[in-house]
Design brief:
By secondary structure, the chain is an alpha+beta fold. The protein contains four helices and seven strands. It has a seven-stranded mixed β-sheet. The protein starts with a helix and ends with a strand. About 20% of the residues have low confidence.
């Protein structure tokens, strides 16, 4: 039996795949191996706390681009919206996953890719994800970009 968080993630993946098919987006291989987070990208920006936001990794899956960014921990809702907006301006087509610890990013990416390929036995690094995925930015069917808490669907606000 699938746990609720696995069902939620599966629903996200199915929704994303449906959006791609419905919109007939191309470029499935676009940026698949590029921009692996050198730390010198244009999206690296100073935060008010003096810490930097840094691109960690990214990939394209089923026509959707996903980018993972390290952000300072403890950001307020307004700071998260501002930070996501700055990154979104540099990567306007990417779904963003904002984390405050990079140690579990590769395990999480491995999990997401496995689930997207139908591997129901893939193990979510739940403890890390619950603690360190700060927010995620998703494009809605309406074309709006919404920032959510953690890896779920509790709205923080719209990013323009």
């Amino acid at each position: 039996m699938m746990r609720p968080h696995n069902i939620n993630l599966l629903l996200v993946i199915i929704l994303c795949a449906g959006i791609v098919q419905g919109c007939k987006l191309g470029g499935e291989n676009r940026n698949e191996a590029g921009n692996q987070g050198s730390g010198n990208s244009a999206t690296e920006s100073k935060q008010e706390t003096g810490k930097k936001t840094r691109r960690l990794d990214g990939y394209t899956l089923r026509g959707l681009t996903f980018s993972y960014y390290l952000v300072p921990s403890g950001l307020s809702r307004d700071e998260l919206l501002k930070t996501a907006g700055e990154i979104h301006r540099d990567e306007p087509d990417a779904q963003l996953i904002l984390v405050d610890d990079e140690s579990g990013v590769q395990d999480y990416i491995t999990y997401v890719k496995a689930v997207s390929q139908g591997d129901a036995e893939a193990k979510l690094p739940k403890e890390w994800a619950d603690k360190h995925i700060v927010a995620n930015l998703q494009k809605l069917m309406s074309g709006k970009w919404m920032l959510y808490e953690g890896y779920g669907y509790k709205e923080i606000g719209e990013v323009k």
